[in-house]
């Protein structure tokens, strides 16, 4: 298959450098977008074609657009880090590309070749490289997504899709000092059921989770924790992040049962934990285990992980019946060690021995805004 060549039509008037620097000083999360986006069209007849880098802007949408009605859409999230010497590198983008294919398959959508996914990200990063924050811990968050562009109300898989990559400078989801989050365990609602779409990164899973998140907030908690749909017994995920349980030097994360999102941060931390001499395994953890092992002190730490926020300690748990503290309620030693190990690889202060970082652009001393 030949890959579409990305035609460049850059903005004639990108945001002035002064205003861009203002944004970069305090970017928030997902509030600001760079000057450009990449779009690639798919149709049943022509396959992937019409790849373009164009100014960031609204997309026209028909009221009968199939995505608005039947939610045929998938997305990804990955970060580009500025490294010592000026290189801009993405963390494991091929893994995001492969997961994007898996999500698309589940939602009856066409699969974008891995190389095209990466090339689209790379084109955008090269064009908008001045938007990659230099503040430590900040990064450029890439949001590739795909949705049905065909119109009609008949229920079926669409025959036209648009793939888009946009980019947003970010300081991380839970920015600032490391504050452990409190969680509310949802026992009335589920995020995903066996055979469903829980392993796909699709908007519908998020829509299904928002009520649980709102209930967590009403309970005074930061985040919602999901249990399995069948027994309402096994811990699955926290909001849109994977969970790890630390028993002394041993770390455990729920196995990929098909109802969890296979996080790339999760996979990376399993590897890093072993590199650091920890025992690391995938196993089932029940809500009852969590409560009992916290009480008897064998469970020393719990943390959540994902691209947007990195590694986040979980300090306390609340259910309809009780509440308890994890460890001493403060960020744990193993949590912080893994958090730093991951950040060091991403920021370039530790060696990337596994080839996780993929260079997408060089800034060097060249002026930004030109390739
Ligand atoms: C994206 C996501 C994660 C985290 O995946 P990463 O690849 O680590 O960013 C975890 N759970 C859900 C539901 C997600 O959508």
From TrEMBL:
<dbReference type="InterPro" id="IPR043131">
    <property type="entry name" value="BCAT-like_N"/>
</dbReference>
<keyword id="KW-0663">Pyridoxal phosphate</keyword>
<dbReference type="InterPro" id="IPR033939">
    <property type="entry name" value="BCAT_family"/>
</dbReference>
<keyword id="KW-0032">Aminotransferase</keyword>
<protein>
    <recommendedName>
        <fullName>Branched-chain-amino-acid aminotransferase</fullName>
        <ecNumber>2.6.1.42</ecNumber>
    </recommendedName>
</protein>
<comment type="pathway">
    <text>Amino-acid biosynthesis; L-valine biosynthesis; L-valine from pyruvate: step 4/4.</text>
</comment>
<dbReference type="InterPro" id="IPR001544">
    <property type="entry name" value="Aminotrans_IV"/>
</dbReference>
<dbReference type="InterPro" id="IPR005786">
    <property type="entry name" value="B_amino_transII"/>
</dbReference>
<dbReference type="GO" id="GO:0009097">
    <property type="term" value="P:isoleucine biosynthetic process"/>
</dbReference>
<dbReference type="Pfam" id="PF01063">
    <property type="entry name" value="Aminotran_4"/>
</dbReference>
<feature type="modified residue" description="N6-(pyridoxal phosphate)lysine">
    <location>
        <position position="201"/>
    </location>
</feature>
<comment type="pathway">
    <text>Amino-acid biosynthesis; L-leucine biosynthesis; L-leucine from 3-methyl-2-oxobutanoate: step 4/4.</text>
</comment>
<keyword id="KW-0808">Transferase</keyword>
<keyword id="KW-0100">Branched-chain amino acid biosynthesis</keyword>
<dbReference type="InterPro" id="IPR036038">
    <property type="entry name" value="Aminotransferase-like"/>
</dbReference>
<dbReference type="GO" id="GO:0009098">
    <property type="term" value="P:L-leucine biosynthetic process"/>
</dbReference>
<dbReference type="InterPro" id="IPR018300">
    <property type="entry name" value="Aminotrans_IV_CS"/>
</dbReference>
<dbReference type="GO" id="GO:0004084">
    <property type="term" value="F:branched-chain-amino-acid transaminase activity"/>
</dbReference>
<keyword id="KW-0028">Amino-acid biosynthesis</keyword>
<comment type="similarity">
    <text>Belongs to the class-IV pyridoxal-phosphate-dependent aminotransferase family.</text>
</comment>
<dbReference type="InterPro" id="IPR043132">
    <property type="entry name" value="BCAT-like_C"/>
</dbReference>
<dbReference type="GO" id="GO:0009099">
    <property type="term" value="P:L-valine biosynthetic process"/>
</dbReference>
């Amino acid at each position: 298959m030949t890959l579409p060549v990305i035609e460049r039509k850059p903005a004639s008037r990108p945001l002035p450098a002064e205003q861009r620097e203002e944004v970069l000083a305090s970017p928030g999360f997902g509030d600001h977008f760079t000057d450009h986006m990449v779009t690639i069209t798919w149709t049943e007849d022509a396959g992937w074609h019409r790849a373009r880098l164009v100014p960031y802007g609204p997309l026209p949408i028909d009221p009968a657009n199939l995505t608005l009605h039947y939610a045929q859409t998938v997305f990804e999230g990955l970060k580009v880090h500025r490294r010592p010497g000026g290189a801009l590198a993405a963390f494991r983008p091929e893994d995001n590309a492969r997961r994007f294919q898996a999500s698309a398959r589940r939602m009856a959508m066409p699969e974008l070749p891995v190389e095209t996914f990466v090339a689209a990200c790379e084109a955008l990063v090269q064009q908008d490289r001045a938007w990659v924050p230099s503040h430590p811990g900040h990064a450029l968050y890439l949001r590739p997504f795909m949705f049905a562009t065909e119109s009609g109300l008949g229920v079926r898989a669409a025959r036209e899709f648009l793939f888009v990559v946009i980019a947003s400078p970010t300081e991380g989801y839970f920015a600032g000092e490391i504050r452990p989050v409190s969680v509310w365990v949802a026992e009335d609602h589920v995020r995903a059921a066996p055979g469903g779409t829980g392993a796909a990164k699709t908007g519908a899973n998020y829509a299904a989770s928002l009520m649980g998140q709102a209930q967590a907030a009403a309970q005074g908690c930061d985040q919602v924790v999901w249990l399995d749909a069948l027994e309402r017994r096994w811990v699955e995920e926290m909001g849109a992040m994977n969970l790890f349980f630390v028993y002394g030097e041993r770390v455990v994360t729920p196995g990929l049962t098909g109802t969890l999102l296979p996080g790339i941060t999760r996979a990376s931390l399993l590897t890093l934990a072993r590199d650091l001499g920890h025992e690391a395994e995938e196993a089932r953890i029940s809500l009852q285990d969590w409560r009992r092992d916290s009480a008897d002190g064998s469970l020393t730490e719990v943390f959540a992980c994902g691209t947007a926020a990195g590694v986040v300690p979980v300090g306390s748990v609340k259910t309809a019946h009780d509440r308890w503290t994890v460890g001493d309620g403060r960020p744990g030693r193993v949590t912080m060690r893994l958090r730093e190990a991951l950040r060091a690889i991403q920021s370039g202060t530790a060696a990337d021995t596994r080839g996780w970082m993929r260079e997408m652009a060089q800034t060097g001393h060249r002026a930004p805004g030109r390739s």
